[in-house]
TrEMBL record:
Enzyme class name: lyase
UniProt xrefs under Gene3D superfamilies: 2-enoyl-CoA Hydratase, Chain A, domain 1, Lyase 2-enoyl-coa Hydratase, Chain A, domain 2
Protein's recorded name: Enoyl-CoA hydratase
GO molecular function terms attached to this record: enoyl-CoA hydratase activity
Classification via Pfam families: ECH_1
UniProt keyword Lyase present: yes
Originating organism: Pokkaliibacter plantistimulans
Recorded superkingdom: Bacteria
Amino acid sequence: SFQHIEYSVEQGVAILTLNRPAALNSFNADMHLEVKDALKQARANEQVRCLLITGNGRGFCAGQDLSDRNVAADADMPDLGASIEKNYNPLIRTLRSLPFPVICAVNGVAAGAGANIAFACDIVFAARSASFIQAFCKIGLVPDSGGTWTLPRLVGPARATALAMLGDKISAEQAEQWGMIWRCVEDAELLDTALQSARHLATQPTTGLALIKRALQASSTNTLDQQLDLERDLQRLAGRTEDYREGVAAFMQKRKPEFRGH
Ligand code: T3D
């Protein structure tokens, strides 16, 4: 039923594949609507315990579809703030708040918002031939989709500033070395590797993983004292899950745990 993406659920994993390969999976308004719809379905589906995002073709995502922007001299300038408010910000907020892990498999070039959408995911794999570009500066824009927040945290202020201002293309290997992503893998192995991790995560204590996600995100603004308090509160919640009970019981009985996600 989708035109610009593919969406499926199997073995507890929702797979969202950006599918406008001729435009390197850049976002037009319709693709935004479809991604929104798919993420809503994933959140509502109790079977889903992990989300995998990837792209078809030689690119992962080239950010905003620039052919959708009328910048002719006689045209009214588009309100990019409205575009961010309506589409990109809700997308990043959703990815960050989904109560299960989000894995990104970056299959090719990730430019502009495409790069920062990847960095908003919890665990990022990239194909060796993939690359990352903060392309915004080249057309007079500012990194969006959380880039000015995630980049300094991922690579520190010196590298974040140069990446944002120079717009250099960073290879997947370099991105791994700098800690921008979890792992760079051979092209042919990307999808299998990412799927394997996603399927593994979908068998794990999902509520516990969601609490880990919350704790790590909160750490970027909390003091140690606040974070210690938060860990206490989240551990209290984690300790009330069936999966915690199962985890300890399985350990003591020297058997493999069977987690149900709550
Ligand atoms: O507007 C708002 O709502 C504000 C929000 C902004 C968010 C943003 O993401 S702004 C940044 C937008 N993205 C870019 O500036 C990146 C533009 N693309 C590129 O710089 C290059 O395409 C790449 C570096 C990503 C890849 O280069 P290359 O040489 O491998 O491929 P290519 O030949 O440039 O692209 C292949 C095709 O995809 C080509 O179409 P064609 O000639 O084969 O018909 C190209 O036009 C198209 N394409 C690539 N990126 C975009 C795009 N078409 C529309 N929009 C794109 N962003």
